[in-house]
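Reply to dn_fold:

You asked what the input looked like. This is it:
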Amino acid sequence: MDINTVNSLAMQTSAGQTGDAVNIQVLKKAMDIQAQMAAQLIASVPPVASNPPHLGQNIDMTV
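and this is what came back:
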């Protein structure tokens, strides 16, 4: 094997690993932003009004 070929292969592998690391960091950042947006969306939902106390106390059953 030629030394230039080995050097070229090593550089390609290094560049590939760097590219993978950058892609992973971009993915993590996108997931963080998505989590923040989801939290804001959940926080923006108004609270549900509770039922009056007389509802849900009895069950009507027929046999």
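Helices lie at 3-44.
Hope that clears it up.
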